[in-house]
Amino acid sequence: MSGTTTYVRFQSTEQSPRGHFPGIFALANGLARKGRLTEEQHRFWRAANDWYDAAYTDPSLVDPAVYDPGVNPGAVAWFKGTATHLLDRIPGYLALLAAHGVPCERLESADPGRVVYEDEHQVVVVPRPGSMDPAAVPNARSPQGA
Questions:
Q1: CB under 8 Å to 138, separation ≥6 — which residues?
Q2: What is the DSSP string of 16-74?
Q3: Less CB within 10 Å around the terminal CB: N or C of the chain?
Q4: According to the model, what pLDDT value does residue 146 have?
Q5: Pick from 119, 133, 28, 21: which is nearest to 79 by CA?
Q6: CB neighbour class for 95 (10 Å; exposed up to 12, middle 13-18, buried from 19)
Q7: Cα Rg of the chain (Å, integer)
Q8: How far from the centroid of its chain's Cα atoms is residue 56's Cα?
């Protein structure tokens, strides 16, 4: 399996009203925006978001159209499996979501879709039809506990 990059994504198990599966950061940000976090959870969320903002590039700052639904319909970000320093901090977000009963799952893929942005830590892809369907990528999904 050497030479094959594995990509990792954490997302909701439920589609949003717009038909997307929101990612882990969108889910946590939604809880904060709705005022559902305790004071301690809010401190964790703010510090963790600040750390991620400093640790890697926001693709939309490089390409403002990267998430534009007219240009890249359904575009979503995936971590590169080699970005362990970024993945190592995900359990705190999973615990936060679990504390509020917000389901989140881990997906892995060697080919998550058509790449529209890439840097050393992540890709943003437009999923191919059926690629977000668990039946399309056997064993790609594994539920995450806190």
A1: none
A2: -TTS---BHHHHHHHHHHTT-S-HHHHHHHHHHHHHHHHHS--HHHH-TTTT-TTTSTT
A3: N
A4: 31
A5: 119
A6: middle
A7: 15
A8: 13
- Local structure of residue 15 (DSSP, 8 states): -
* pLDDT reading at 1 higher than 70: no
User: Is residue 136 scored above 70 in pLDDT?
Assistant: no
- Looking at this protein, which amino acid is placed at residue 14? E
Record the pTM: 0.85
Position 69 confidence tier, pLDDT thresholds 50, 70, 90: very high
CB 81 within 8 A of CB 2: no
CB within 8 Å of 64: residues ≥ 6 apart: none
- Could you give the angle at the alpha carbon of 55 between the alpha carbons of 52 and 56, nearest 5°? 90
pLDDT in tens, 29-57: 999 999 999 999 999 999 999 999 999 99
For 19-30, letters b (16+ CB in 10 Å) and e give ebbbbbbebbeb
State the pLDDT at residue 21.
96
